[in-house]
Design goal:
By secondary structure, the chain is mainly alpha-helical. The chain has 5 helices and 2 strands.
């Protein structure tokens, strides 16, 4: 084994190569963790500043918009035919998989996927 000289707490120390490699990997890990922590902290500070600026007005506005969208979506779902409403209910209210919905309705999972895609487009147009 060959010894390698490293700087440890401001002093040059001779250590085996394996120890020097371990210390270098640990130093890199610590530096990467520090950088990640700094990015996280700066993001939190940025979000805090943004959220505190006009926060009450924005929250009220967002709640009003969300309620309006939900009401529009309820009306759009009420306008669907019975079969479409049943499909929506099985998939989202009862949280069944597409395969389970297909078994209940006697069609394939692929057919359920296509029907749901069509319904999503229809509902998106109604809400937009």
């Amino acid at each position: 084994m060959s010894d390698t000289v490293v700087t440890y707490q401001g002093q040059h120390v001779s250590v085996p190569k394996e120890v020097a490699d371990f210390l270098e990997r640990d130093r890199r890990r610590a530096r990467a963790q520090y950088k990640q922590d700094q990015r996280h902290l700066s993001r939190i500070n940025f979000e805090t500043v943004l959220s505190s600026f006009g926060d009450a007005e924005r929250v009220t506005e967002n709640i009003a918009l969300k309620n309006l969208q939900l009401e529009t979506l309820r009306e759009a779902v009420a306008g669907l035919n019975e079969r479409e409403q049943k499909l929506i209910s099985l998939r989202y209210d009862e949280e069944l998989s597409m395969e389970e919905v297909g078994r209940q309705l006697g069609v394939s999972r692929m057919a359920i996927s296509k029907r749901l895609r069509t319904l999503h487009r229809k509902l998106n147009r109604a809400v937009s």
